[in-house]
Amino acid sequence: MKKLFCLLFLSGCFFGIYQRPQTIGEGNFDFSLYASFQITTNPYDRRDLKNSGYGLFSNLGFDFLYGITDLTDFGFHFSGAGLGPFLRFAVYDEKIRGIRNQFLIAPYILYDPIFSQSLGFRLDAIYSWRASKFFEPYIFYQMYYHPYFEEFFYNQTNLKPLGRVGSGFYHFVGFGSNFNIY
């Protein structure tokens, strides 16, 4: 049970990938609703850190996917990172010893209507293997660009968030698993 608990809650960065780690197939639809709560000692919120030594940040959202082909999906994303369309392209799709392995690239254009009223860009690279119909572990790399985050985190507060690699650019590496219930 302890191993299952760890798998459920190790999902990478604050934004995470929150999507199926493999393409869904031509003509198929998928809807994902999610919530995450990150506890960090990274100083995003000075008040929480001063009072408790850590910060708690929630993120809610959903993804809608449609399979254009067996190896290409079109989707719409909404979360704390923004809302907007994205594509997913499987660039590698092979069965190894009966297990489907897939590497996909997913570029996003995200608009932040709440905080900055500006565009951000995200790129996910995901490698996954379908261990069973219900369980798909994966590893991912995510690159994110948003000029507002640079202005807010770095210029106004003088903080250096984890993953910052340049002016407005952030990147993350993570792992997780998808649990299908149907």
The strand line-up of the biggest sheet is 1-2-3-4-5-6-7-9-8
Helix content: 10-25%
Mean pLDDT: 77
Shape: globular
Number of strands: 9
Radius of gyration, whole Å: 17 Å
Strand content: over 45%
Structural class: mainly beta
**Unreliable segments (pLDDT under 50, ≥5 consecutive)?**
1-14
Q: Helical segment tally?
A: 3
Distance between the termini: 22 Å
Largest sheet: 9 strands, antiparallel
Q: How would you describe this protein?
A:
By secondary structure, the chain is mainly β. 14% of the residues lie in helices and 56% in strands. It contains three helices and nine strands; from the N terminus they run H-E-H-E-E-E-E-E-E-H-E-E. It has a nine-stranded antiparallel β-sheet with strand order 1-2-3-4-5-6-7-9-8.
Quick summary of this structure?
This protein is mainly beta.
Descriptive terms for the model:
single chain, 182 residues, mainly beta, nine-stranded antiparallel sheet, 3 helices, 9 strands, 56% strand, globular, disordered N terminus
Secondary-structure map with pairings?
Elements: H1 2-9, E1 29-40, H2 46-52, E2 55-69, E3 72-79, E4 82-96, E5 99-112, E6 118-130, E7 135-145, H3 147-156, E8 164-166, E9 169-179
Antiparallel strand pairs: 1-2, 2-3, 3-4, 4-5, 5-6, 6-7, 7-9, 8-9
